[in-house]
Amino acid sequence: MTVPARRPPPLRRRRGPDRDRRLTGLPGFYLTVMRTAVAVQFQYRTANYAYMIGMVVEPVIYLVVWARVAGAQGGAVDGITAGKFAAYYIVWTLVRNMNIVFTPFGWEERIRQGRLSAMLVRPVHPIHYDLAYFAGWKVVVVLLWLPIAAVLTLIFRPTFDVSALEVLVFLVAIWGAYLIRSMLLWVLGMVTFWTTRVSALYDIYFTAELLLSGRLVPLALLPAWAVTVADVLPFKYSFGYPIEVLAGDLSTRELLTGLAAQAGWIAAGALLVAAVWRVGVRRYSAVGG
Amino acid sequence: MTQASTAVQVAGLRKAFRVAEREAGLRASVRSLVRRQYRDVLAVAGISFTVAAGEVVGFLGPNGAGKTTTLKMLSGLLFPTGGEVLVLGHLPSRREHAYLRRITLVMGNRNQLQWDIPALDSFEMSRAIYRIPSAEFRRIRDELVELLEIGDQVRKPVRTLSLGERMKAEVAGALLHRPEVLFLDEPTIGLDVTMQKRLRAFLAEYNRRYAATILLTSHYMADVEALCKRVVVIDAGAIRYDGGLRELSTRYTRQQTLTVAVGESAPDLSGYGEVLSTDGGRVSIRVAKAETSQVAARLLRDHAITDLTITDPPVEDVIEHLFAAGTPAP
């Protein structure tokens, strides 16, 4: 028996105004890649939830420990109450998700499997693809984060004292944090151009970041010398600073100098990315991909 | 050095790689930690050729001959060690966006398509990357989908497609910006015969319709025979032959096959040449090309021949002979 050949239906036409008339060039590219990232992530809803739950375990452990310590010390540790700890670690979960960027592991795979070659023959810098893709991914993650944040709030009863300015600065700072970490890990990932493997370096970076960013413990609880070190390194501006904006008691001056520091690190990161990329791609093109 | 009708100009192009080497085993592995040994490998050893706009050229050669390295230098993925390359008036190694918008590189095992979503969504991304106006994009996309017969496949997540379907979708994605020069590295690798034929027919049509220049490498002679009037044979980084595919056979064929039909039972014809096969009354004999007409005349004189055909060996055999003989470049 033969099955009659079926002609596939015509391809769908987009409704509404032509997108090109609204957004062209790089912004148009960002929008399309972000849409693609959302489409990809929606394919894996269960995996996304499993990932989110895994990500919440870490701050909940910190939170339970610090809440117990605060309780044992009469309700506060260095002036941070259990409610403040709860606020810190609930905001932590959102900032941590904003911190998910293209990692050096991805770089290793990209170079080993030759995917970078495919990207190099396209007329757009690959960093734009990574920035746009992970930004799109955040849309999905934030949607999934909302119910988790609600549950954490009901259980741990955080204390928030937030002004409109703080909310505004926070909304900018979380994207600043995203850009800083993206640039730094891109630079680290590009070491793969020379070494093929970069995981060991990433482990060192990760340890330093864990201690000096405010991820493991709020920076206010570190010794004075460690706070000074953290102030001159970028890690704090991709983690502790945005959390403090919403969950801490920063003055207006501290809020704005934090944003300025973020802008400085973004600029430094961009320059570093451009410089290392230039040399690295030349090397990659010399040895083959 | 570019002319209006010349798409690719290559002069004295060289590429050397520095390769780390060590013996097998743990001891050699530990030794290489302290003192690593390198060897310089000349992958492309000063080749020169030009390709006219709209021409389809096949790069032939054994594995490691330098074909893919050459394509990578032409597309801007590799910096040449020496020599000059100009494609469409651009220096490929600069990888200017204006250049990359005019070319495409398809490598059999490197994918541009997103694995988890339908190819249609990846095509949208290409639209954004190449800044193709929406109306034009839809027209080209629909045309490619129709030509490649992938109307159903482009709606499924790419990971669910067969290798052949994926390859066709890759090719469609690589041509959305309507490149003027196509670098195709083993475009039909791993595909079944039907799929290979469709892809070949499509590439021939694309070349005809848009006067696109195509440089392709392939291990399948059928690809080359179907698409390329001209071939460049590379071996050990050097050009061994550059010219017409038909002339390649004429120039390098040393032997021909005579097939004769001699009634119901074939006599012993081993005195005329090397008997390749006997099938009922049909006998195939391999003879030196210079003696073909003489042997044919003798056969016709000595036997009651009802049919006689003379054929050249397959191009694969000619090329194999070319590599084996170490024939210098003409």
Give an account of the 3D structure.
- The complex is a heterodimer of chains A (289) and B (330).
- Chain A is mainly alpha-helical and 289 residues long.
- Chain A has one domain (25-287).
- Helix content of chain A is 73%, strand content 1%.
- Chain A is built from 13 helices and 2 strands, in the order H-H-H-E-E-H-H-H-H-H-H-H-H-H-H.
- Chain A has helices at 19-22, 25-42, 45-72, 82-98, 104-112, 115-120, 126-156, 164-190, 192-195, 199-212, 224-232, 240-247, 252-287; strands at 76-77, 80-81.
- Chain A has a two-stranded antiparallel sheet.
- In chain A, a hairpin with a 2-residue loop joins strand 1 and strand 2.
- Chain A is globular, with a radius of gyration of 22 Å.
- In chain A, 37% of the residues are buried.
- Among the domains of chain B are: 6-102 and 179-249, Rossmann fold (3-Layer(aba) Sandwich); 254-311, YebC, transcriptional regulation domain (Alpha-Beta Plaits), CATH 3.30.70.
- By secondary structure, chain B is α/β, with parallel strands linked by helices.
- The two termini of chain B are 24 Å apart.
- The mean pLDDT of chain B is 86.
- Chain B has a 6-stranded mixed beta sheet with strand order 5-6-7-3-8-9, with helices on both faces. Chain B has a 4-stranded antiparallel beta sheet with strand order 11-12-10-13, with helices on one face. Chain B has a 3-stranded antiparallel beta sheet with strand order 2-1-4.
- The longest helix of chain B is centred in the middle third of the chain and has 18 residues, at 193-210.
- At the A-B interface, helix 2, helix 6 and helix 13 of A face helix 2, helix 3, strand 5, helix 4 and helix 5 of B.
Summarize the structure.
The complex is a heterodimer of chains A (about 290) and B (about 325). Chain A is built from 13 helices and 2 strands, in the order H-H-H-E-E-H-H-H-H-H-H-H-H-H-H.
Secondary structure elements and pairings:
The complex is a heterodimer of chains A (289) and B (330).
Chain A: H1 19-22, H2 25-42, H3 45-72, E1 76-77, E2 80-81, H4 82-98, H5 104-112, H6 115-120, H7 126-156, H8 164-190, H9 192-195, H10 199-212, H11 224-232, H12 240-247, H13 252-287
Antiparallel strand pairs in A: 1-2
Helix pairs in contact in A: 2-7, 3-4, 3-7, 4-7, 4-12, 5-8, 7-8, 8-12, 8-13
Chain B: E1 6-21, H1 26-34, E2 37-52, E3 56-60, H2 67-75, E4 82-87, H3 97-100, E5 103-107, H4 119-129, H5 134-147, H6 163-175, E6 181-185, H7 193-210, E7 213-217, H8 221-227, E8 230-235, E9 238-244, H9 245-252, E10 255-261, E11 274-279, E12 282-288, H10 292-302, E13 307-311, H11 315-325
Parallel strand pairs in B: 3-7, 3-8, 5-6, 6-7
Antiparallel strand pairs in B: 1-2, 1-4, 8-9, 10-12, 10-13, 11-12
